Amino acid sequence: MKILYICTHNRCRSILSEAITNHLASDVITAKSAGSQPVGQVHPLSLKYLAEAGIATDRLQSQSWDEFEAFAPDVVVTVCDSAAGETCPVWFGKSVKVHWGLSDPSKLTGSDDDIADAFRDTISQISMRVNALKAIAEKPYTPESLRTALQELGAQ
C-alpha cells in the first residue's frame, strides 16, 4: 500500500506521519508526505523528537504535492484541517482520500516540557494509527473496503 500524507506546509504533522509509517510498517506500506504550500524545510523539533524516538530523519524534506503525481498513492491522508479543505490535484482522483486530523505540536507555546510532551503525544497518536493501518495493509482490499476500514479507525 502507498500512502501520501498531506499537510499545508509539510513541515511537522505530515512529516511525522511519513517517518513513523516508514519506521513501523515499511514491510507493507510506503509512505511519503507533501504540502500544498510547502515551506521548504522540516520543523527542527520534528527532527529532534523523531530522533529521540529512534526514527530515521535523514531523508525527510518539505516538498510540494506536485512532485508526487507518479507516486500514485492508494490513500491520501490529510492531517491538518486547512489541507482537508483544499482542492486536491486531479491526479489524486483514483486514491482513497480521508482526513485524519492531528493537533500541530509545532504551534504550541509554553514551556520546553509542554512542547516536548506535545510532540511525544503526537508521535504516540501517529504510531497507534500506523499500527492499525499496518493491519489493514496486510489484507487484500478494494478502494471501498479500504475507505470503510479507515473510517472504522476514526478517519473522516
Top-tier CATH class: Alpha Beta
Query: Count the helices. How many?
Result: 5
How many domains make up the coordinates?
A: 1
Query: For the record, what is the CATH homologous superfamily label?
Result: Response regulator
CATH topology descriptor: Rossmann fold
Low-confidence stretches: none
Q: Return the string of H and E elements.
A: EHEHEHEHH
What percent of residues are in strands? Answer: 5-15%
Major sheet: size, sense and barrel closure?
4 strands, parallel
Verbal overview:
This protein is of the alpha/beta class. Helices cover 40% and strands 12% of the residues. It has 5 helices and 4 strands, in the order βαβαβαβαα. Helix 1 crosses helix 4 and helix 2 crosses helix 4. The mean pLDDT is 88.
Short note summarizing the structure:
This protein has helices at residues 13-25, 44-52, 81-84, 112-137, 143-152; strands at 2-6, 30-34, 75-78, 96-99.
Features:
alpha/beta; globular; single chain; 156 residues; 4 strands; Rossmann fold
Give the SSE layout.
Elements: E1 2-6, H1 13-25, E2 30-34, H2 44-52, E3 75-78, H3 81-84, E4 96-99, H4 112-137, H5 143-152
Parallel strand pairs: 1-2, 1-3, 3-4
Helix pairs in contact: 1-4, 2-4
